[in-house]
Every structure is written in structure tokens, then in C-alpha cells.
Specification:
alpha+beta, Helix Hairpins, BirA Bifunctional Protein, domain 2, 2 domains, 3-stranded mixed β-sheet, 13 helices, 17 strands
């Protein structure tokens, strides 16, 4: 949630930010209007409370002296009724203002490229070279089905569209990637491993920004006030919600494997073939909780940590800075890491690494004690996929495919896989 005080002090700045995002800036005027009403009501409430206290003291004095209090009782009742009415109005105004703030996006950092959509994203760097295949590349669906390691048909029978069975060495490849990523982030990059719940409450989703804005993207449990997580970002960030963290423990760095569940509302018709966009997928998530001064630097480091996985796997990729119109609701800046897929002859996002400043921390009440003032201060949060497992499986399959339909296993994965190649298996 944005800082309403900052917005009210400089509404033009936030209006400009909203315009860059493609949002209606008139919401700023609403917030300013409600804040003015709120301030007036606060003044009225404080005045009435003061009057009530004074009259109550007079009432007590008269009562003690045995004098008639009936007229004073009427006055106190009138003040009490007016106070109750003003307090109710104040609560209504505060609720309206909070609801608007909960559904309006974050500020953007100054270096975010301006543009209305992804066509304005800026390529920051590339790593490696596109694999030179002397044959027409197959996509992961054809490769996986011919090798007997992917089964969409049976997943469709058991569940429905956009689900998959990973079989045999396909299942082992997915599991190997999870272990490899966690081992790398924990042993080499200094993250603490955490295995989170896959079910969270509404407040946790409000804390990270999925609710109330993106309710249609979530799977809610019937008859329970819980949701399946769309990403481990939700439980891991909220691991320290409503807490004050010791400054000397910052930055907190967590690496978490989880399954993720997304309804993909609004994405119908997009990437419907194969595992590019599924309702259930695995991911290793990186989350950082930092102080206000170091969040930009820590964002860069987290992005490099995610990139390192692709480098160790020998997969060609690029990093892009998302434009203002393509930056996510809660992010102040976002890098997308995009891996090359030969069958599509294009790059596909495999990780989004975002810095949120204090946007999530304000919603989730994540604070640290400032070493200079000793006062609780809102933390900054950062996260990114390190990486999305399914899309990494796709990239390995397609970039390492051979003319005979087999798939070479990247060297760093061979100790986990126990084989150096996936060849034709028995297809059930």
C-alpha cells in the first residue's frame, strides 16, 4: 500500500506515476478528498470527546453535591450521540480511503522505462548464445511425449486442461532442478531455506498485494477462509508480518520451494500448449526483507542470484527491465529474466525479480528498529523466482535436444539425475 501522506503532500507525482502505468489518475483526487474529510472529522471527534470529558466531570461534581443533574444529562447525551455519529462517519471515510489505497498500485522508481506495454521493455543484458541446431527443433510437448516423460492426456482425464503428469526421468528432472536450485541458493548465495504452507488466509494475500485486486486469479477453498498460494512469495513474505525485526539481522534472505496455483484468469488463449502456462506448477522463490537504504542494491543481487542458475545450466537468456505499463501492481521496478525457447524462436519469462519498497511492508506491518532513532520503521521487500521449475524444464529440454529426439542433461544436474541423457523410454 502506498504512503497516503506522501501522496497528499505531492499528488502530482502520484498522478504522473498512474498515467505512466496506464491507470486513471482521478483516484488521487478521491484520496485527497477523503483525507480532507477524515481530518475534519478527527478534529470534530477530538473536540466532542473533550467536551464530553469536561461535562462528565461536572456531572460527577454535581452528583457528589446532591444537586440536580437532569439538564446536564441531556447535554451529555446530545454530545454522546453527536460523538457516536462522528465516529461512525470517520470509520466509514477511513474504510473508503483504505479500500482505494488497497486497490491502487505502487510508485515507480525513476529509472523504470516509460511505455504502455511490454513492447517498451528494455533489454539490459544477454548471457550465452542461442543454441545452433542443425535440425528443426521440436517443442517440449513433442519431445516429452515421444520420450514418455510428459503426459497431458491423462492429466486432462484426471483433472482438466493446463495440468500435466511428469513421468519417469521427466519427474526426476523436475525434482533434480528443485534440489539443484535450493542447494545453489542456500550454499552459494546465503539464503535460508524455508518450506512454507501451501494454504494461506486472506490477510496474507492482502499483505503481498494479491487481494483485493486480483481475487479472480486465486483458488479459494470452498467453505474455508483460505486460499491456495499463487506463489511462495505470499507465505514467505508474511513469515515476518506484524513483527519488528532486529536491524542487525537484515537482510533476511529466504529460498523456498513450493507448488503454485493460479486460475490464470484473463489469460485464456495465451500459451495454451504444453507447460508454459499451467494452473499448478512448481517454483523456487527468493524473498528478501531489507532496510530502506539497501533495497535497490539487494534487488540487483537477487536478480543476479536467479541468473546464476541459468548460467550454471548453460541456458541462453536475457534480462529486461519492464516498462511502466508492464510493471506489476505492487512492484516499484521489475526485471524479467527471459530464457530462449528454440521451438518458439522467442524468449519466455522464467523469473520476475521485483523490488516493492515499503508497499508490501505497510500492508503486512513488517518493520525493523531503526539503529539511529530506535523507532520501528517499515522494511522494504524484494522477491523473484529462482526459478520457475516447469519453464526451466522446458528450456533444458529444448536447448539440449538432439537430432534423434534425446535430451542431454546439463553437467551440473547429472549428480542429481544419475544419467547424462534422456532417451526414448517405455511409453505406457
Amino acid at each position: 500500500m502506498i504512503d497516503s501522506k506522501k501522496l497528499i503532500e505531492n499528488p502530482k507525482e502520484y498522478k504522473r506515476c498512474l498515467k505512466l502505468r496506464g491507470w486513471d489518475p482521478s483516484v488521487v483526487d478521491e484520496i485527497v478528498k477523503y483525507d480532507l474529510e477524515r481530518r475534519e472529522l478527527i478534529s470534530t471527534v477530538e473536540k466532542l470527546r473533550s467536551e464530553k470529558n469536561l461535562k462528565s466531570k461536572d456531572f460527577g461534581k454535581l452528583k457528589k453535591e446532591g444537586k440536580d443533574t437532569s439538564e446536564l444529562e441531556k447535554i451529555i447525551k446530545q454530545i454522546t450521540d453527536a460523538l457516536t455519529k462522528s465516529e461512525n462517519s470517520l470509520n466509514e471515510i477511513q474504510t473508503k480511503c483504505d479500500n482505494i489505497l488497497l486497490t491502487t498500485p505502487n510508485y515507480l522508481l525513476p529509472d523504470v522505462p516509460e511505455g504502455k506495454d511490454s513492447s517498451f521493455n528494455k533489454v539490459v543484458r544477454e548471457w550465452g548464445k542461442k543454441p545452433e541446431l542443425a535440425f528443426k527443433p521440436k517443442d517440449h510437448v513433442d519431445l516429452g511425449e515421444s520420450l514418455g516423460i510428459i503426459d497431458f492426456k491423462r492429466a486432462g482425464k484426471v483433472t482438466g486442461a493446463r495440468f500435466v503428469f511428469m513421468c519417469g526421468l521427466g519427474a526426476r528432472l523436475e525434482r533434480s532442478l528443485i534440489n539443484f536450485m535450493l542447494d545453489t541458493h542456500v550454499k552459494q548465495h546465503g539464503y535460508s531455506e524455508i518450506l512454507p504452507p501451501y494454504i494461506v488466509n486472506e490477510q496474507s494475500l492482502i499483505g503481498t498485494g494479491q487481494l483485493p485486486k486480483f481475487k479472480e486469479d486465486l483458488f479459494k477453498l470452498e467453505n474455508f477462509p483460505y486460499y491456495l498460494i499463487p506463489t511462495a512469495e505470499v507465505p514467505v513474505t508474511n513469515f515476518v508480518s506484524d513483527e519488528i525485526i532486529d536491524y542487525d539481522k537484515l537482510p533476511l534472505k529466504f529460498a523456498a520451494y513450493s507448488a503454485c496455483f493460479r486460475s490464470e484468469a484473463g489469460s485464456y488463449g495465451k500459451d495454451t500448449r504444453g507447460m508454459i502456462r499451467q494452473h499448478q506448477f512448481n517454483k523456487v522463490e527468493l524473498v528478501k526483507i531489507t532496510d530502506a537504504k539497501s533495497s535497490i542494491e539487494e534487488h540487483e543481487k537477487l536478480t543476479r542470484d536467479a541468473e546464476k542458475i541459468l548460467q550454471l545450466l548453460g541456458l541462453h537468456y536475457r534480462v529486461v527491465t519492464l516498462s511502466s505499463g508492464d510493471t506489476g501492481f505492487a512492484a516499484a521496478k521489475c526485471y524479467d529474466i527471459e530464457v530462449w525457447l528454440p521451438s518458439m524462436n522467442e524468449y519466455k519469462e522464467i523469473s520476475s525479480c521485483s523490488v516493492f519498497l515499503d508497499f508490501q511492508a505497510r500492508r503486512a506491518k513488517i518493520r525493523y528498529r531503526d539503529p539511529e532513532t530506535g523507532k520501528p520503521t517499515l522494511a522494504h521487500t524484494i522477491n523473484g523466482s529462482g526459478l520457475a521449475i516447469g519453464r526451466t524444464v522446458i528450456a533444458v529440454m529444448e536447448q539440449y535436444q538432439q537430432a534423434d529426439g534425446s535430451i542431454i542433461i546439463p553437467e551440473v544436474l547429472r549428480p542429481y539425475m544419475g544419467v547424462d541423457k534422456i532417451t526414448a523410454a517405455l511409453v505406457i
